[in-house]
Each structure stands twice: as C-alpha cells, then as structure tokens.
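Note to self: keep these together.
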Amino acid sequence: MSNIIKIEGLRKTYDDGTLALDDVNLNIHSGEIISLLGPNGAGKTSLISTICGITKPTSGNIYVDGYDIKKDYRKTRKLIGLVPQEIALEPFEKVLDVIKYSRNLFGYSNDDKHIEKILKRLMLWDKRNKRIVELSGGMKRRVIIAKALSHNPKILFLDEPTAGVDVDLRIDMWKLIKQLRSDGVTVILTTHYIEEAEEISDRISIINNGKILLTEKKIDLIEKMGQKTITFKVSNNINLDHLSKDFDVSITKNQTHTLVNYHYKKTDELFNDFLSHINKLDCKILNIDTNEKSLEEIFLDVVGL
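Structure:
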C-alpha cells in the first residue's frame, strides 16, 4: 500500500517554548481513513496544521504525494482539503457562492456539475441559494466540508468534524466519510468520540504530549491490546482457590455462587487446559459470560489516564 503522506522526525516548538510535536514519524496510506486520538493538548491540531502548511515545522520533513510541503507548497496544498473545528463563514454570502469562491481560490475554474454533486451529497442542494446566516449549525458544518471538497482534493483533514452536532448528523457524517474513502479520498480525522474512531477508521494513531504512541489497524489494536474476561458462574460446593496458582484467574464468592474470572489473551495457550480442569471438578457451571475491553479502555491504558 502506497503512502500519500510521509512524516519524518517532525518537531514543532511554539514561540512561547511549548513543544507541541516531538519527533513525530507517521506514514498515512493512500485511500485509508485514519483517526488521530488523544486528549486535549496532545498535538492533534498542531499536526494537522503543520501538514496543511498553516504552521511551520521547527524541524523534520513532511511529504504529500511525494512533494515536500516546504519546497512544493502550492502543489501539496492543492492536494489537501481541510475542515477545521471552527465554523468561519461570511454570514451574508450564499452557499453556492461560498463553494464556488473556495474552488476559485485554488486556481480552478467553476465546475457546475462537480459543485452540484458535492452539494447534493451533503444535502445542501436545496439550500444553495440560502445565506449562511439562515442555516442551522449542522448545515453550516456541512458547508465547511463542501468548501474543503470544492477543489476535488485527494486528501481530506477533518478536525473534530462531529463536535457539538446531534447524533443523526454524526451518523450522516460517518456515511459521507466512508463514501469519500470509496471514491479514493484519504481521510484523516481527529476526534474525541471513541465510538467514531471505532466505527469508521481503518487505522488508529494515538498521540499524547506531542508524541505518536502507537499506530495500528483498528482490528489489530483491539485484538492485541484488548483483554477478554470470561466469567464462569459456578456452584459453591467446592474450593476453587487453587485455580489461581495455575491460571490467570480471579475468584469472588458470595452466599449462592462463585465467580471465576478467566483473563483471556489472544495468544493464550492455557485456556483449553483450564476448560478441561474445570469440567473435571465437582461443581455445576451456572452461567458463562464474556466481557471484552473496549477501544476506549485501550486508549486510556495507552495514554495513562
């Protein structure tokens, strides 16, 4: 899989001495959706701003589709669409004019069919002659995305795209992002919503204190770091304390039953032995329940919160 963005040894120190990015190395694959997860102040927005050319890097290199962001600024900027957190739109401009003007800023002539396609996809076509001031907050956010897509970029950055929007709009956004990936657009988003990253991401990169802590395929991350607990509810007629000597279990008792919590890992080689052992014991299995670590719990483990 080819890399559309390559980041090497990136550092960013602001004038007040704040180290926002600390030796960031990251490859972003063409046509993927990658989520940047991290607490407030982790460096997510600084990373996006630096790749997009809004903020100058202190050191390190960034290549977008093979072009250096410093030497080939115009070429790299044309490849990128950016949806910032803030909604900054001229209140009395019409939606259609805002999108056309944004396209013209990148040096492209008007393309009515392309703009119509974007507005229809974002359910803005019937609002095209409305002024921005007449739109709801959710519709304004759609206009921001339409602006970012107006010049048909290969890469789309979404900085907290669903922050403060209702659930229905959030689900619509997820559908749109998946459609864009199907069209070959590479999507990089920052989000505070763990379920958002879990729903739409191909890969997840966790950042904290300006450092990339890990970057993994979503499925691999959950399988590798997610621990499963299998709980056996058994009768109280036998002492099971000896199990903890041979297996990774915790045991809790009450007056009616005992819970044996088996902490299962993907590479566990003892589970079959455990099952054989517990089946030989003179106790009745009343229930079996499984609980698996969520992506949110994995995230909290990684960042140490």
